[in-house]
Amino acid sequence: MFIKKHIKLSFKNSSEITEYYRSMQIDYPKFFKMDNLSKLGFLASEMLLKDEDSRFEPRENVAIIGFNRSSSLDADTQYQATINSNENYFPSPSLFVYTLPNIVTGEIAIRNKFFGETAFYVCEVFDAKQIVKTVRNAFCDKITTTVIALWIEHSEVFAALVECGEGDAEFTENKLNLIYNT
Length: 182
Prior knowledge:
The protein is of the alpha/beta class. Helices cover 37% and strands 20% of the residues. The longest helix is centred in the N-terminal third of the chain and has 14 residues, at 36-49.
């Protein structure tokens, strides 16, 4: 396994995330309905996949695996605000959808027509050892040839496009830590 591409993006706030999306000139109106977790994963996947052949063709061989520390806390907090008051009780279905962190992997899969594994794990910290182990396990199914691995926390996203085979950037704990911390 090797890292074909990687990207690290960091933003100050949600306005900056939207501004970056607009600068990419992508036409995907659903972006504006997403929570920040999904927006960050979406932007990183767009950067990783923009030059890929067979983009948007149905594929079963691509898995998407995300990780973070805070789960969907941002969306959870916003949703909680819609149900806090007995006088102004109005649960928001559009916010409720994003109260699961794995929605980000689903958003990426839907956009790109990927039918492989999607999963999201909550960890205390960026744990390269756990990420490498989890991604390696995804390749055990004999179908998966590509994994998009994501670490998304608050307004930062790190993503790597990992493929089967050999390449310059071997997918190891040390290599992942080096790239993430650079």
